[in-house]
Design brief:
By secondary structure, the chain is an alpha/beta fold. It is 39% helix and 13% strand.
Length: 765
């Protein structure tokens, strides 16, 4: 289904080719012509895309043609991005003066030789694309010439609103809530049973989790139980993980590093003689042995302790339950209409559009009482007052398709189809994260940018702002939910409903895949890999090379979202560098190797590198500064990191840097006094800088050419830092916490919008 992204990839290629053609200095003889020819071929094929996508559902040959075309486009993008790297390299060389230019010309990366080589690659891509394009004639595809070539600019601004329903706004569940609370207050029928288990059963999208939250936070429940704990179980019933999560929920402190015996002891101590309520949300496992193992561990509380288990599976409910199953039903049509109106209109606006409300009644009847479907379609039609938009949703063919047990809800598919091509790609990439994952807007947007899914705006709209607009669209149609904002408003966290995650998995195939080291049959079409492992394999030296050998060398993403302890040896990164030269996103959080290979600079297209929470790494190689495409570098929690590379401030594309370091100045001896006086580059591509627990840091580099684009500065627990740079004219958000030496005497000039200060002894509130 990911073939539908070919249109968007073609748009990106046209934009990149146009940019390169505008920079004729970088093009050798003949390369310009080949690039023009490539652009013409892409434009020709692009004209038949929309018709091809409509017809492919009933034509397997056409689906195969689109797949070949998309693969060719991906390869073309790799070549054009290599050219883009060359442009950035020339900018660095030009800034270095005459001597550096001479050295570069006679080096192994001779610019003329490189451009002739790339010209040959472009010709090969163009000839391959010509052959694929020629096959389009046999499908009798319609050319749609009115679709404009993209001009990257500001998107239509949507009103900042989210359609997710807060617990206080839930409609139609008061009766269910009161009945469940009544069950919780009752004594067990069996006096020998200290603890009772109430299964809450219902199909996906019905609102089981929302109802459980209403019950969990009700004042009667809060008063009745001495302890309350909430744990999300999800697909794998891992008893050790669940013990940790229960302890964390009970104590609000993590306990990841404790051995299993101590974990069990601590769990019993927390629950012993306490009348507790434990919610096990989203249970799928039917394994009786694992459930009885956990049940025995928690069955130490006071009499009348209760467990609520939410599940979609009746067999799971029968395995776990000691109380009668509470089966949740769908909302009534009137209740659905109330939810729909709340999501589709501003307060009271529905009175102005009775014809739309009438159509809305027909739409909600098709949602079968599912609140998720109702909210999604309400968000889709929010602020749309054209009757044709509403009729199109009501009369869509999606409703006519036979609905099987595990099929995607028509309401979700309708909302997905209405998204723009670029937002669809961003949504698909979310499939790399496991179910019930807590997304962080800051990291998610940077990953989207790392894959080139967010392009720079010709109207100078920041990529991060465009990414936030994409998030707003997904929030508005309830593809994201359970939104929580951080205390300082820097980012928010959210989750994705299981059914929405299933949709993401479907539309991302075959490009994105979640794998483990023991997988045998891996599609050659996979370009984005997310590893399911929780624990890093003991046989790292043996397993990793074998696994890498199964992957296509065009991999663009490798991440470990579930990992507790990441890669232990430098050889893992070395293997990545040798095999995956086109990788854009490399997430190595929680790794434990002590050094990063000097050859990291060979990953010329790398845009996102996460080394956070590596407590062993001491230094980064100077060669990392040659990653001219790198936009995001995460070094938070690197407790042993002594200092950053000398020239890190000169990295051309670096936009986000979060770091914990032991150095005194940032960066150490980055620029000489003469360079600073003439305003030479230093961190002037950074948009966000986070300095966290830098105990020795006393100063940031000063100069007119430093931090010229910095919009957000976060300084947390840097007790020796006593002043900030004076010229932060682009700064919009400044957050300072626990910096005892930093008072109000900086004299910093900033275009401020938001300032947060905590723990500054030099100033008293």
């Amino acid at each position: 289904m990911a073939e539908s992204f070919a249109f968007n990839i073609a748009d990106k290629l046209l934009w990149k080719a146009t940019s390169l053609l505008g920079d004729q200095v970088s093009l050798a003889a003949g390369v310009y012509t080949e690039l023009e020819n490539l652009k013409d071929t892409i434009s020709t094929v692009r004209a038949v895309f929309l018709d091809a996508e409509e017809q492919q559902l009933n034509n397997h040959q056409l689906t195969d043609w689109l797949r070949k075309l998309k693969d060719c486009f991906y390869d073309a993008e790799d070549v054009l991005d290599e050219f883009g790297y060359d442009s950035l390299l020339r900018e660095v060389v030009n800034e270095g003066g005459f001597r550096r230019k001479v050295r570069h010309f006679f080096s192994s990366s001779n610019p003329l030789a490189f451009r002739f080589k790339m010209g040959s690659k472009i010709k090969g891509i163009r000839e391959r694309l010509d052959k694929i394009a020629a096959d389009a004639d046999k499908f009798n595809l319609r050319k749609i010439m009115g679709v404009p070539v993209p001009v990257i600019g500001p998107r239509r601004e949507k009103e900042k609103t989210y359609s997710f329903v807060r617990a206080s706004d839930v409609i139609g569940r008061d009766g269910d809530k009161d009945k469940i609370i009544e069950f919780l207050m009752q004594s067990s029928d069996d006096d020998q049973e200290n603890m009772s288990v109430l299964p809450l059963l219902g199909i996906g999208g019905l609102g089981k989790t929302t109802l459980a939250k209403l019950v969990y936070n009700d004042v009667r429940v809060v008063k009745h139980f001495t302890k309350r704990m909430w744990v999300c179980v999800s697909n794998e019933f891992d008893v050790t993980r669940l013990i940790k999560d229960i302890i964390t929920s009970a104590t609000h402190h993590k306990c990841d590093d404790l051995p299993i015996d101590e974990l069990q002891l601590r769990l019993r101590n927390e629950l012993n003689d306490n009348k507790f309520l434990l919610v096990l949300d989203d249970v799928w496992s039917k394994n009786r042995d694992k459930w009885f193992e956990l049940k025995a561990l928690v069955d130490v509380g006071a009499n009348r302790s209760k467990i609520i288990a939410t599940t979609c599976d009746k067999l799971v409910a029968n395995v776990m339950g000691t109380l009668p199953i509470y089966e949740l039903k769908g909302l009534s049509d009137d209740e659905c209409l109330s939810v729909f109106i709340r999501c589709a209109f501003k307060d009271g606006e529905d009175k102005r559009y009775p014809r739309l409300v009438k159509i809305g009644k027909d739409i909600v009847k098709k949602c079968q009482g599912l609140p998720l479907a109702v909210r999604t379609l309400g968000g889709l039609l929010y602020l749309k007052t054209n009757e044709n938009d509403w009729v199109r949703v009501r009369d869509s063919e999606c409703w006519q398709l036979e609905q099987k047990k595990d099929d995607i809800l028509p309401a979700l598919k309708l909302s997905y189809d209405d998204l723009s091509f670029d937002v669809k790609q961003c949504f698909a990439l979310c499939s790399l994260f496991p179910k019930d994952c807590q997304f962080n807007t800051l990291e998610l947007i940077q990953m989207w940018m790392g894959q080139g899914l967010i392009q720079p705006s010709q109207q100078k709209e920041e990529m991060e702002d465009i990414g936030n607009q994409y998030l707003d669209e997904l929030l508005q149609i309830s593809f994201f939910q359970d939104v929580e904002f951080d205390d300082i408003g820097l980012f928010c966290e959210f989750k994705m409903h299981d059914l929405v995650h299933d949709l993401a998995l479907l539309v991302a195939r075959p490009d994105c895949s979640t794998l483990n080291f023991d997988c045998k049959n891996i599609s050659t079409k996979v370009r984005h890999v997310s590893m399911l492992e929780v624990d890093w394999p003991e046989e790292e030296e043996e397993k990793v090379p074998i696994f890498f050998g199964k992957l296509n060398n065009n991999i663009r993403t490798i991440s470990f979202p579930n990992i507790v302890d990441g890669p232990r040896s430098e050889s893992f990164v070395g293997s990545c560098i040798l095999r995956f030269k086109y990788i854009r996103v490399l997430d190595l959080e929680k790794s434990s190797f002590e050094a990063l290979s000097n050859s990291i600079c060979n990953l010329k297209l790398l845009r996102y590198l996460n080394l956070g929470l590596n407590i062993n790494i001491k230094r980064l190689p100077n060669s990392i500064c040659k990653l001219h495409h790198l936009q995001t570098l995460l070094l938070g929690g690197c407790e042993s990191l002594e200092e950053l590379p000398r020239h890190i401030g000169k990295m051309m594309s670096l936009r986000l840097l979060i770091v914990k370091t032991q150095q005194i100045a940032l960066p150490p001896q980055a620029l000489g006094k003469r360079e600073l006086k003439v305003g030479r580059r230093c961190f002037n591509s950074l948009r966000l800088l986070g300095l966290v627990q830098c105990d020795s840091l006393e100063s940031l580099v000063e100069g007119m050419g430093t931090f010229t684009a910095l919009r957000t500065l976060v300084i947390d627990a840097c007790p020796r830092l006593s002043f900030l740079p004076k010229h932060l004219l682009a700064l919009e958000t400044l957050v300072i916490m626990d910096c005892k030496s930093l008072g109000w005497g900086w004299g910093t000039r900033m275009g401020k919008r938001k300032m947060t200060f905590e723990g500054m002894e030099a100033y008293r509130f």
